[in-house]
Amino acid sequence: MRNIKLTLAYDGSEYAGWQVQPNGPSVQACVETAIEQLTQQRSPVLVAGRTDAGVHALGQVASFQTDSTIPCKNLQTGLQRFLPDSICVREAREVSSAFHATYSAV
Predict the structure, then answer these.
(1) Does 2-95 carry CATH code 3.30.70.580?
(2) Which residue among 2, 32, 68, 97 is least crowded, i.e. fewest CB within 10 A of its CB?
(3) Segment 59-71 mean pLDDT
């Protein structure tokens, strides 16, 4: 199982925040859906910190685990195809299995 770190930027104007919400679209739901569409695998996404409704991010760090063999550069461009213009994958990088977006944040 590979551990993938994503660096994301997004305009949060259209979202009810990072976390999946019953009352509106979330950044997390968009990212998890894009991962599933690209890899054909459900992969929960961990994040360094959640943003509230309407809040933007320039360097949000997230991570997910996958069995996919898609190279990281192709993960980055592939995910971008499935994401709205308001969410940008700035980087996708394979990291150690010990990395956890929430607990490894400094």
Answers:
(1) yes
(2) 97
(3) 98
